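User: Predict sucrose synthase's structure from this.
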Amino acid sequence: LALLSRIEGKGKGILQHHQVIAEFEEIPEESRQKLTDGAFGEVLRSTQEAIVLPPWVALAVRPRPGVWEYLRVNVHALVVEVLQPAEYLRFKEELVDGSSNGNFVLELDFEPFTASFPRPTLNKSIGNGVQFLNRHLSAKLFHDKESLHPLLEFLRLHSVRERL
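Assistant:
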């Protein structure tokens, strides 16, 4: 509560991970130790940003690569709510736009366009997109021999020395 009260006391705004940690380091040692040892310590280490709209503080938590969780805490009423990504983004937009009052917001769903796109499943693939795609395409090419014919035709068509 001491940490969230400090953050909420800063007023409306966005705090990045390093700013949240700096606020954490400003609270008394005994409170800090209790937070570090508990479940909140793990949440704090994984928090990427905090959105402050008093009396609410919303947290974007990334417990592991590719996984995001959102929650908000009413510092005065001590109420915790889990948020869906759209709710978190709406809350974040209120910083700029104020309350939306039920206005319609354009939402685009690009998921149908990425349905057949390969997704990295290993943590080591994150940040190595080109290498991941090269391995995926190579495996696909050599797994299905029929897929080599279009490649061969492409190379024949665009060959400079006519060796193919």
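The beta strands are 13-16, 47-53, 56-64, 67-74, 79-83.
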